[in-house]
Design goal:
By secondary structure, the chain is of the alpha/beta class. It is built from 11 helices and 7 strands. The chain has a domain of about 170 residues: 3-Layer(aba) Sandwich (Rossmann fold). The chain is globular and about 55 Å long.
Length: about 270
């Protein structure tokens, strides 16, 4: 969602996915949001930047915990969806742009959060720029969700296989950068925010076929533009898979919500 790393296809990879994102993607655990706020000392007087905000999931979660939230994304459709999702929240400000647009004009922040977006950025340069925007006691937090390695999630391998048949040589993730993947922690440890810790919360959820259809269409590799007329076939196959795995039309998954907190050494000791 945020600015792509150098060498990435300039194609607006998330165009057409915004309508499916909120319905399809697993939400971040509320307990994890509150824990991050506590661990980073976030108070109502502080400002938060949601960088690569997408439809505004993290912005909405942090709005009750902060004085102001700036939600920033380069994709116009995502910002339009975020405007609807965040309607009525007076302390949220939407800003078009990505990591290459970070500047002092945005203000100063106690916390910068990123949800499933950091891997699309030039991560070293982004952390360098954020060093000038984050207060001395502040932090950078990357949020992510994935399926925990438990028996309840066994069906997810079949879902991956189905997606691979439609993705061809495309991948909805860091592999698209065409280089050996380096973990976020490596970039954080090499930055001013080199005190890094990880936190996780596990949650079981039950959902239906419509949710899984929205999930696949929320991924950049399966946007309508990139499927080249195969969207209806993909939806039929997803619904057929659900009928095969769960005849009652309901699936259970166990989602692990992760938060990677990075702070300057002085901030950790406070």
């Amino acid at each position: 969602m945020a600015t792509q790393a150098a060498g990435c296809d300039p194609f607006r990879r998330f165009r057409g996915t915004a309508a499916h994102y909120l319905a399809g993607r697993p939400p971040y655990a509320g307990l994890l949001i509150r824990r991050v706020a506590t661990l980073t000392g976030l108070e109502r007087r502080h400002a938060v930047l949601d960088l690569g905000c997408g439809p505004g999931v993290l912005a909405r979660s942090f709005a009750p915990l902060a004085g102001e939230v700036v939600a920033m994304d380069p994709e116009p459709e995502m910002l339009a969806t975020a405007a609807e999702h965040l309607a009525g929240l007076a302390n949220v400000r939407l800003v078009p742009g990505g990591s290459n647009d970070l500047s002092s004009a945005l203000g100063r922040f106690h916390l910068v959060v990123m949800g499933r977006s950091f891997h699309w950025m030039d991560r070293a340069e982004t952390l360098h720029r954020l060093d000038t925007l984050i207060e001395q006691c502040g932090a950078v937090v990357h949020f992510h969700t994935h399926h925990a390695d438990v028996p309840a999630n066994a069906w997810n391998e079949q879902f991956r296989d189905l997606r691979r048949r439609y993705a061809g040589d495309r991948h909805d993730g860091p592999q698209e950068h065409g280089e050996r993947w380096v973990r976020h922690e490596a970039f954080m440890l090499a930055s001013r925010f080199r005190c890094v810790e990880a936190h996780s919360v596990f949650e079981p959820r039950t959902f239906d076929a419509g949710t899984l259809v929205d999930r696949v269409f929320s991924m950049s590799s399966y946007s309508l533009a990139r499927l080249d007329g195969r969207a209806e076939a993909l939806e039929r196959d997803v619904r057929a898979l659900i009928r095969e795995i769960a005849p009652d039309g309901r699936l259970t998954e166990v989602i692990e919500s992760n938060a990677l907190i990075a702070r300057r050494p002085a901030a950790r000791n406070l």
